[in-house]
């Protein structure tokens, strides 16, 4: 089957440093580069000091987004990549950066064209 | 069950105006507002004249992203919203804006905490 891209839904539980937008930016950039992606644009919003972060990297091969709830040690990430990039290769940087106790993954193949 | 947010995966087939970043930006903003969201940041990248667009709106309630393949009349959208927002309410604006022949939806509840 041919398809447009792979969309990984990544949930982190028991994770750390979820209130640090600079750290989050650096971790996702490392993950994007490890997956072979080209970063076009990044934006990370810190809701309050010590609060959650929402952010995204727009890639030449789609995007990585993150939304964090530091008060629950929970982060919701999604990684969508098309072309030759493998979003699974971004996972080790994410695990190293946030040290989650548990990672939940789901995969969607987007744009299947048979 | 309590959960952090609802993540809609939306695929459009037979869709129009997928090579127009200003139109795409306007359509997603209309959808975000219809869902009750607050827009914090937007970025839309046009890969080439008449080519695909990759973009995102960062919301106070998470994000909307889009990646388009005008040569296939295909677009991959995801809408993640937490709090009181209902991402399904963004769908009518998306249908009106892109006139897809077919819409494929999948839903993930993110951050289920039982």
Your description of this structure?
The structure is a homodimer of 114-residue chains. The first copy, chain A, has 114 residues and is α+β, with helices and mostly antiparallel strands. Helices cover 19% and strands 44% of the residues of chain A. Chain A has helices at 21-34, 91-98; strands at residues 5-13, 39-46, 53-59, 62-69, 74-82, 102-110. Chain A has a 6-stranded antiparallel β-sheet with strand order 2-3-4-5-1-6, with helices on one face. The interface between A and B is medium-sized, with 32 and 32 residues.
Largest sheet of chain A: 6 strands, antiparallel
Label the overall shape of chain A. Answer: globular
Radius of gyration of chain A (CA) equals: 14 Å
Helix content of chain A: 10-25%
Q: Give the spatial strand order of the biggest sheet of chain A.
A: 2-3-4-5-1-6
Q: Structural class of the helix and strand makeup of chain A?
A: alpha+beta
Count of individual helical segments of chain A: 2
- Report, as a whole number of angstroms, the end-to-end distance of chain A: 5 Å
* Most residues in contact: chain pair: A-B, 32 and 32 residues
Write down the overall mean pLDDT of chain A.
95
Low-confidence stretches of chain A: none
Order of helices and strands of chain A: EHEEEEHE
Provide the β-strand percentage band of chain A. Answer: 35-45%
Quantity of strands of chain A, as a count: 6
| Assembly state | homodimer
